[in-house]
Amino acid sequence: MNRIFSIVVFVGVPIVALGAFLNWSDLTMFALSCITIIGLSGFIGRATESLAIVSGPRIGGLLNATFGNAVELIISIFTLKAGLIGIVLASLTGSVLGNLLLVLGLSFFAGGLKYKKQNFSLQDSRYNSGLLIFAVVVAFVIPEVFSMTMNPTTTFQLSIGVSVILIAIYLSGLFFKLVTHRGVFASGDEVVEEEIPEWSKGKSIMVLLLSTVAVAFVSERLVHTFETLGEQFGWTELFIGVIIVAIVGNAAEHVSAITMAMKNRMNVSVEIAVGSTLQVAMFVAPALVLISMLMPEQMPLVFTIPELVSMVTAALLVISLSNDGESNWFEGLILFAAYIIMGIGFFLL
């Protein structure tokens, strides 16, 4: 698999550049860009996994989530610049649903096929549950409710206030978990066999930097294909954002979380999937709201009713299944089935 990712990256990036220069069709550029970004995500995943081996499961999960979400953040900034706000909001929804239902579901399922029962930190699970309720139910639903009686300017002002609070709470949570209460959360870390990182620390950092630059270049080409893609296949902005952009943008942590589950490293797997969700909801989404202040068109933190209902349902389902600190293949199947049901809904909407 790593060899395939390497071939995709070293061949894909030059071909995308050539296609942009020769003005190839949007559908061709869309396919090439998606494949190349997935390959680059594989590189990012390998680099962060190497760093994670020497950092521990919690820092490792945070690194995977952060650099995995960096891909989506870059795609979203270019999409925001193009004025496609609906796709940006939909991709944020897709990230939440994809990480909670698709990634965590497949991780539980794949790991559960190999191990009858897998355990992860109950302390982490309870901590994540509280933040999921706060981020998805409180911070996403409240702006939608109040915006019903507000004009666009006031709604955006509310979104700015909510975004600043979300980022402040997210950073405070990291300080709480990694500094002031580090010992409490570290007590739940699993003991695993000593692993040797694939790449050195210096090489891993260099790969991350170069991959991020390449992702930025390819993402700009990808965004220009969205309009044609919708016209050719009859896909709405909502479906493109929720399913297509979210899956491509989060490919790195998708692969990493499932791989870790199959190695019975469930603390890392859960930290990647749920931690990525929290990072999207509490950092990426509000950061995009603030960045939109510099754009011709501002993006309020207001989702559609189907998006909100889907995200709240996903959060509550994950909390219900993970609060015991245990997982199995059947729970994974339930999460995956929920994702498929929502995907069908967004496709037919």
Could you explain the architecture of this structure?
By secondary structure, the chain is mostly helical. About 80% of the residues lie in helices and about 0% in strands. α11 (about 250-260) runs antiparallel to α12. The two termini are about 35 Å apart.
Tags for this model:
349 residues; mainly alpha; 82% helix; 14 helices; 2 strands; two-stranded antiparallel ribbon; single chain
Task: Write a brief structural summary.
The protein has 349 residues and is mainly alpha-helical. The chain has helices at 2-22, 26-55, 57-81, 85-114, 122-147, 152-180, 182-186, 201-223, 226-233, 237-249, 251-262, 266-291, 305-322, 329-348, and strands spanning 118-119, 326-327. Strands 1-2 form a two-stranded antiparallel ribbon.
> How does the overall form come out from the CA principal axes?
globular
Average pLDDT metric: 85
- Specify the structural class: mainly alpha
Largest sheet: 2 strands, antiparallel
Following the backbone from N to C, one meets helices and strands in this order, namely: HHHHEHHHHHHHHHEH
Layout: helices, strands, pairs:
Layout: H1 2-22, H2 26-55, H3 57-81, H4 85-114, E1 118-119, H5 122-147, H6 152-180, H7 182-186, H8 201-223, H9 226-233, H10 237-249, H11 251-262, H12 266-291, H13 305-322, E2 326-327, H14 329-348
